[in-house]
Amino acid sequence: MLSILALVCSIASFICFIIVLIKQFQQGSVVHGIIGIITCGIWTFIWGWMNAGRLNIKNIMMIWTLLVVVCIILNVLGGGFYYHVGTTTP
Description:
By secondary structure, the chain is mainly α.
């Protein structure tokens, strides 16, 4: 159940990434947008917070930040980072 909630949270976080990436292409430059795609969103996240006031996207950035934190918590609680190392399955 927690892994399903984490998946929904991850999809919502990806939607926030796309919204900020579109703003990055529009307001920044093509280079900023390409770097945002290549770095898997970390640059887009930082750039979004740096320009949140100017672009009026503070709400989106706050939601995105909350979603990232909630996703991490749900993945840890749901066992998303649980690995069997060196054990065999009977």
